[in-house]
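Attaching the record inline, Q. Sequence:
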Amino acid sequence: MGLIHGLAGSAAVALLVLATVRDPRWACGYLLVFGIGTMLGMAIITVGMASPLAVASARWKSFGHWTRIATGSLSLLFGLWLVYQIGWHDGLFLATSHWSPR
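Structure, as predicted:
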């Protein structure tokens, strides 16, 4: 999941650079290197975050259960906050959008 998520989040950066590359072979090479680098980076970060959690879960049996509840709750709260910010604060659901880049 992290590999695909990393590629999806980095697409804008890849497209910015591709706009400056004129030779299709160099563009394909850049995409290949960029994709491999993104996947490796996300894999390293995922392993780095998951390893301590796996060790703690093995040591304390209820740690994994409470970690899943805590991360799920935080994800849900963050998603609800985003819906509020984009939907009502920025006016997406009100048909009076007033978003501007900061």
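Helices lie at 2-9, 11-18, 24-59, 63-89. Residues 61-102 form one domain.

More tomorrow.
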